[in-house]
Amino acid sequence: MGKSINHLLRNLKKEGLIHIVIWAIFLFLFFLQVYFNTGNFPLTFLNFLIVGIFVFYLNYLFLVPKFLLNKKKSNYLTSVIVLIILGVIFIELILPKPSSLHHIAGLDGINKPNFIIFRFGLPLFFNLILVVIGTAIKMYSEWDKNIQLQKEIESQKSSAELHFLKNQLSPHFLFNSLNSIYSLTSKKSNDAPEAVITLSELMRYMLYQADNDFVKLSDELDYIQNYLKLQRLRIARNQDVTLNIRGSVLQQKIRPLLLISFIENAFKYGTDFKGNTFVCIEININGNDLDFKSINLIGNRKQDPENSGIGLQNTKERLQLLYPNQHKLEIKEVSNQFIVHLNLNLTV
């Protein structure tokens, strides 16, 4: 809230400064031109400017926001007509004028009817121009503010969605890992203590690093390796569980916990009715280009319609939010194998 107020105040100060500079330049050039043409500063034109500025800002600050932006076009048009006419009346009947108006304005040779038209037509046209300019500026300003507000709302919405998706992923992963460890302890396996230590490393990463916007690719790959280590401890027949990482891992960064759902899904459904597990994970890095492939056997395990696919859908949504034009995802089933192929551009 405080950040929004400060942003609004900065915008108001900036807008006010722009108005002051524009009016200062306009008045300077106007009076300079008049002085070169007449040799003095006519009070009549000064009256025009005083009333014109009043008309401009009454329309800019009040009539446009109150009527035009609220789609009350008839009210706005009526108000503008009244404002312009009152401006002309104020100039001609209320503000003081020099006695030698003809001479100052350079109109000595103009007959009276034409002079009357000029006398009332000029301020009318002048005020009309200021109203049109003020309306155009205000409408553009509001349009620009709406665009910025929409971007801010979209940004906040994306952040909220990412926060929700990340929180959804963590319990999902934890439950699966605890099930793995429970399987080891129920079998009284000597690997259970190592599994607990590996899980603690995974949780440490999730708690202290995965909350960042970006993490080092090397740390994310270490996390994946620990996850596969935990799965190998759980699975009796793990000879067909492979992880191949190729390429040069330097200072690349990646959004945290982006690939793990594909890998989780591979282990969840990659065991057949005989207990054989086939999971092959390949990760190739070429500069900022990451190519990920996950292949698993399609086992006979029935999917839970309420809980299955949470991780996959989660990751699809995160990819759309975080890498909208930087990824290509292909998911398919071929010859009793489930294949996920992701090409990701890691350029920040």
TrEMBL record:
Key word Disulfide bond present: no
Asked if the Swiss-Prot or TrEMBL record annotates the protein with the keyword Transmembrane helix, the reply is yes
Molecular function, one GO term = phosphorelay sensor kinase activity
Q: Describe the location of the Signal transduction histidine kinase internal region domain by residue ranges.
A: 160-236
Q: Which UniProt keywords are listed?
A: Kinase, Membrane, Transferase, Transmembrane, Transmembrane helix
GO CC annotation, single = membrane
| Spans through the membrane | 16-36, 42-64, 76-95, 115-137
**Listed Pfam families:** His_kinase
Protein name, per record: Sensor histidine kinase
Q: Which organism is it from?
A: Formosa sediminum
Q: What is the lineage of its organism?
A: Bacteria, Pseudomonadati, Bacteroidota, Flavobacteriia, Flavobacteriales
